[in-house]
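Need the bound structure for pyridoxal-5'-phosphate, inputs here:
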Amino acid sequence: MLYEASSGRSDEALEINPLYARDATNEIPKWKLAESEVLPSTAAQIIRDELALDGSARLNLATFVSTWMEPEARALMADTFDKNMIDKDEYPQTAEIEMRCVNIISNLWHGSVREGEHATGCSTTGSSEASMLAGMALKWRWRAKMRKASKPADRPNMVMGINVQVCWEKFCRYWEVEPRFVPMEGDRFHIDPEAAAKLCDENTIGVVGVLGSTFDGSYEPIEELAEVLDRLESKTGLDIPIHVDAASGGFVAPFIQPELKWDFRLKRVCSINASGHKYGLVYPGIGWVVWRNSRFLPADLVFKVNYLGGEMPTFALNFSRPGNQVVGQYYNFIRLGFSGYRSVQQECQNVAMRLSSEIANLGPFTVLTDGSDLPVFIFALTNTGGNFTVFDLSERLRDRGWLVPAYTMPKHREDLAVLRVVVRNGFSHDMADMLLADLKRHLDHFAKLSAPLPSGNRGGFHH
Ligand SMILES: *Cc1c(COP(=O)(O)O)cnc(C)c1O
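Answer from helper R.:
Posting the output first, comments after.
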């Protein structure tokens, strides 16, 4: 490949050098701006070369986030990179498509929106922003209730399992809400409804239930949580709302576990978030938050922007934000429909459940979740006194590019170290077979060790 050292100055001749024959003095500075420009193709090649050191997104079994979209979706999203979501007046059709998506999602979650009415919700940059918005709505409503009752409103708390995603800890810290965690216990790796109810008092702004825990892929028992909180209300008068963090499950359960009651079918569920860029099957960063109805979103959190000469309500932390992910989400809705989403998620679950059962058959592992909730499962070494740990295995799996995270469970189960596999659209049975073959190869290698491997880096994995 050739490049021309571009220069507008007349005293420099046009240079034509082979791209990889740049001399060291010609190096691109990394920590400050270069003095002059290079050709677009040169800049792109330099960066591509550097990014080649990143892991392969398709072999990344650590992430929940979409790593594959259809070529038509890619092209459509590339064509709409220039749309700014906030410019409702300039891009009214993108705004319209966002509203359609909110209504489609609310409908999927059994929202009770009447014909001709809009669902209350919005797109966000992901579930993290969505959880901030939902959490604020809970805090504002609680504060209004306390003020109305002439009670102090300065010590809010929120109740959740210790397994919540870090966004809820962020929410609590940034918005000064005391987090109250239900710890793990024995083989329970998520919330216990009775224990959650015990942590509630009149300062509880809400309980978060997680549909699809990042630690093990399990669904929290949202229906049971609602029943326990109903009983708490009839006994004590405390009316504690539930927010469901359905970052992953919001786009899985409606399709492959339609009988499971976790959404607006439960009266106590006042809001739900999901990540469009997880099982919504869109490239990162898009999320959604939907409220049961407009009463659950305090009006003073909502701002107005210009829209076709009128005003349009917005609720967001950002101002400018790409509009093309909303377009990508709508593409998937139109392209796949209900049955398309169902077959994608069902296939993920089939792959996850077959892979987890084959891993159980390998011998040394105990499979703790099998992919029957989210298409996500975790497994641990049955005998932890052997010559290797799950951390060693995770590291060796990288030799062919597999990214399978190993981590220890939180409080009360720090003794348990696991490996996790997230099966996403694009991870086929064939790829699962290749992973299995590599797992066997590494187990054979470990079997030949005569002494335990030195314990290496157990660095934190962030969910
Ligand atoms: C991924 C995840 C989040 C954070 O979502 P982002 O879309 O990455 O911001 C929150 N909660 C749960 C349960 C998750 O799995």
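Comments: The radius of gyration is 25 Å. Confidence is low (pLDDT under 50) at residues 5-14.
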